């Protein structure tokens, strides 16, 4: 039986995380090198700075309910992303260890039939990844070009409400700030989407290992005692993998559900303030759809483990 590379399924996921400074090379963690410098610039300056200026804006608009709601429904999500980034980076060692254990011998399919058995789950993850990308990507693209669509770019409107210590309605500060906002949101989108799908992938891998173990137990034949001991060890490794996975994302998941409820509430309020079927309303609906799919990721793949 040829070696089955589990990470091959999520190679795009890993590549995207690497592109925003969240995946050190190979099985390594962060070390003092050029990639770590890039990660600091990406996480602190590009992504963190974008969120900081959005948060500061709240202190200037908190007396205006409509402006506050407009600012909050994006800022709440961005603040959660910042928290997720912190937990992701702090637990990168655990994640890398999970990836290494996943490619260990005990987790390998033992026949072509078992490879075929796990492919449906791998394909579900791939399709979910694509759908999630389409929804989130569409929403972010609309936000990025909305000042052009609404012709408010002539009034120096930025894609996102934020406070800056300079006048953004003066060229070239407006153009520079516009680019910074789009860049910051693009980085945060890539980071958030791929952190979510990475967690979903870990749950998917747990379920596939349960499938393999069940198939092994159904086909116990000769040398029952020795083979059964191997299956018990496999089960223990699956439990350990699941516990470490839960340890990796439990706080992230808590924040995700709390923030998602808040964001949906703010976005629904925003929908009451715009004309039906307008560009803004369609943007809000797309955003709500992306949030629902985000929650769906955790619920669906978590439920698959419960079923097993």
- What profile does the largest beta sheet have? none
Helix count, per DSSP? 8
Report the mean per-residue pLDDT as an integer: 85
Total strand segments? 0
**Shape call:** elongated
**Helix content class:** over 70%
**Count of domain modules:** 1
H/E element string? HHHHHHHH
Distance between the termini: 25 Å
Low-pLDDT segments, ≥5 res: none
Structural class assignment: mainly alpha
Beta fraction: under 5%
Gyration radius (Cα, Å) is 22 Å
Describe the structure.
By secondary structure, the protein is mostly helical. It has one domain (6-307). It is built from eight helices and no strands. Helix 7 (224-271) packs antiparallel against helix 8 (279-307). The model has no long low-confidence stretch (mean pLDDT 85).
Structural key phrases:
308 residues; 76% helix; elongated; transmembrane; membrane; cell membrane; receptor
How do the helices and strands line up, and which of them pair or pack?
Blueprint: H1 11-19, H2 34-61, H3 65-90, H4 92-102, H5 112-149, H6 173-218, H7 224-271, H8 279-307
């Amino acid at each position: 039986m040829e070696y089955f590379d589990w990470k091959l399924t999520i190679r795009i996921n890993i590549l995207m995380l690497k592109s925003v400074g969240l995946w050190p090379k190979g099985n390594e963690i962060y070390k003092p090198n050029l990639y770590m410098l890039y990660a600091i610039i990406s996480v602190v300056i590009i992504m963190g700075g974008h969120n900081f200026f959005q948060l500061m804006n709240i202190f200037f608009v908190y007396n205006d309910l409509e402006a506050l709601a407009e600012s909050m429904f994006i800022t709440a999500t961005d603040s959660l992303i910042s928290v997720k980034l912190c937990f992701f980076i702090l637990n990168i060692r655990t994640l890398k260890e999970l990836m290494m254990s996943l490619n260990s011998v005990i987790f390998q399919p033992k026949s072509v039939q078992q490879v075929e058995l796990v492919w449906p789950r791998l394909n579900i993850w791939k399709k979910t990844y694509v759908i999630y990308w389409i929804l989130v990507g569409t929403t972010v693209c609309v936000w990025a070009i909305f000042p052009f669509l609404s012709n408010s770019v002539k009034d120096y409107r930025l894609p996102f409400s934020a406070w800056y210590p300079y006048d953004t309605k003066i060229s070239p500060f407006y153009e520079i700030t516009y680019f910074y906002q789009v860049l910051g949101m693009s980085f945060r989108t890539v980071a958030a989407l791929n952190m979510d799908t990475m967690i979903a992938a870990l749950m998917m891998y747990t379920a596939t290992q349960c499938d393999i173990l069940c198939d092994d137990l159904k086909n116990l034949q000769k040398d029952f005692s020795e083979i059964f001991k191997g299956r018990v060890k496999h089960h223990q490794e699956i439990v350990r993998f699941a516990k470490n996975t839960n340890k990796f994302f439990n706080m992230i998941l808590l924040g995700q559900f709390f923030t998602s409820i808040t964001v949906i509430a703010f976005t629904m309020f925003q929908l009451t303030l715009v004309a039906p079927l307008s560009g803004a309303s369609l943007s809000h609906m797309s955003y709500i759809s992306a949030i629902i799919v985000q929650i769906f990721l955790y619920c669906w793949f978590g439920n698959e483990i419960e079923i097993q």
